[in-house]
Amino acid sequence: DMNRFCSASSYTDYNADYIAAKMCGIYLPKIFEIYFEERSGNSDLKFPKPNLKNKISIYKQKFSSINFIQEYLKNKYGIKASFNNIRYAEECAAAAENLIKAAGRDDVFQGLEIITDAEKFDDNTKSAMTCCSNDGNAVIYINPAYNWKNADRLEQRQFDAGFQASNSLKNNLFIHEMSHWLDFKGNSDNYCKSENYFSTPDQLRGAGRVSAYASENPREFCAEYISGRLAGCKYPELTDKLFAANWNGPELHFFENS
Fold it and tell me: In this structure, which of 23, 63, 117, 249 has its CB flanked by the most CB atoms within 10 Å?
């Protein structure tokens, strides 16, 4: 996981990069702190507080009811959604707004269908949501049996373990799956082929800068990359080029959090 934020080739280089990042106020997962303390033997260093604005999403608004959110998404963006929980309905709306802002177009989600259906999940409560392709179309399914009440804590845990690109609360889940949908819509043939593993060390290094999950295949890499960028993360040129080479969706522009 050290490649996630630096290109260190030795423990000494890693320690130096870790200290530099912490002195600049960069928020790093807990696993990096443990790795540093185990190999440096120095747990007494005091660092500035991290810049927490890079940990949160760009946009979020409150709605009065589930029905209002469903009508809002349908009438404004062409998204047909069914929710049974206003908390994740609001997160879905926030994710849609963030991605639409990045795309600079209101029509990118025309035709998207989001369905709440526990029967689509074999593991019952472990998976929050998924994007599935059927008959040439992609649908996002939400698992109502997922532990949504503790979703923030679970997201933080996955981020701290280096598995996930950001800890931008629950809407990271929606950004990830809605990015899959945009990827599929852009070129379904390429998207279906992108479940294959990365084949070169450079590709793995580029994807690993985002998260462990991003290293699995181009499909997950693109969704994780977008989640990270919308949470305020910046990546090296190698990673940016890897995204440009594998992304099938609309052109996206990422902005600094205000």
Answer: 249
